[in-house]
Design a protein that fits this description.
The chain has 13 helices and twelve strands. The chain is α/β, with parallel strands linked by helices and 321 residues long. The chain folds into two domains: 149 residues, Rossmann fold; 154 residues, Rossmann fold. The chain is elongated and about 60 Å long.
């Protein structure tokens, strides 16, 4: 159940027992993607049966355009659950509007940017499989997402035909796991040049940052997405980004008009034809968002008031202990 300082309950009953037994003042729940009924049950349990202050971060900037987001209303199960939270943290104004439609009081909704990069997190050495792949391919394209239909990895694989026709040593690393793993592996086996595409699975964050730093460009094709922290990380590290247009992408991203293989290949050729400035974007570094979260903790819990803003790391360590 425990892995270092990370607790990993394997059943709903274990999760409930763990939440009831934890010596914590605040529960901070983070949700990516859609607010499923299972996650709503978890949030409801925390607010009803743990006697803790509960904070929620919905970390999906694309949620407002999803079916759930468009149907947000006060008289709904999600509205009832969200209104029980002490604070809701969102990553853009559109999400703030969704929670207002759910009936959450505006003063309980906080907009905090979802980004902070610590260059010390970048792994000093790549795993052998990545180091070998990079040595054998130039340029290397890095895709970060998931092996799920909405990430359209099959289109990236198809695009590599045209990309490798122009750049015979080009390679693609796909970071992420998902339900399409077996199907995509089968596609690669039948794909000419499939050996030049690496389905890497889930990868430790430091390794991902190291890959971003060395890749020629990052590719993110999605049917459903928000701002995407991985895009911000790439820009911070000076890596060009090609991504589908969600109307929420930060400046500097080469936007795709559609997720067709020919459009992906054309965008890759365009980006790689330009001189690359790999300078680290210092304006994207810092801990302002972490300090903003700690300000929320201090506001909600008198036990946090003794910690100054720059002590967030020590506070979290103390909470774990």
């Amino acid at each position: 159940m425990a892995e270092g300082s990370v607790l990993c309950p394997s059943t709903s009953w274990e999760t409930a027992r763990l939440l009831r037994s934890l010596r914590a003042d605040i529960f901070h729940i983070r949700i990516d993607g859609r607010a499923s009924l299972r996650l709503m049950a978890l949030v409801l349990f925390c607010t009803l049966f743990t006697n803790k202050t509960c904070v929620l971060t919905l970390h999906s900037g694309g949620y407002p355009t999803s079916e759930q987001g468009r149907r947000a209303r006060q008289l709904s199960l999600r509205g009832f659950v969200f209104r029980r939270l002490d604070r809701v943290i969102v990553v853009n104004d559109e999400l703030r509007g969704v929670f207002i439609r759910y009936g959450v009081r505006p003063k309980r909704i906080l907009l905090i940017p979802p980004f902070s990069v610590d260059l010390q997190e970048v792994a000093s050495a790549l795993e052998p499989r990545f180091a070998q792949f990079l040595s054998e391919h130039e340029p290397t394209i890095l895709s970060i997402g998931g092996l799920e239909p909405e990430y359209q990895v099959e289109r990236q694989i198809e695009a590599m035909r045209a990309i490798r026709a122009r750049l015979p040593r080009a390679g693609l690393i796909v970071v992420g796991s998902g339900s399409l793993q077996a199907e995509l592996e089968q596609q690669l086996r039948a794909e000419p040049g499939g050996e030049h595409i690496l389905l890497a699975g889930d990868v430790e964050h430091g390794q991902v940052l190291a890959l971003l730093k060395q890749a020629a460009l990052m590719l993110r094709t999605t049917q459903y997405d928000g701002d995407a922290v991985s895009i911000r990380e790439a820009l911070c590290l000076g890596t060009p980004v090609i991504a589908t247009d969600t109307h929420l992408r930060p400046p500097g991203v080469r936007l795709l008009p559609s997720v067709q293989a020919q459009d992906i290949a054309a965008a890759v050729a365009e980006v790689l034809s330009k001189p690359m400035d790999r300078a680290v974007h210092a304006e994207l570094l810092g801990e302002e968002n972490l300090n903003a979260v700690m300000s929320v903790y201090r506001e909600l819990d008198a036990n946090c008031a003794k910690y100054p803003p720059d002590r967030h790391a020590q506070l979290m360590e103390d909470k774990i202990k």
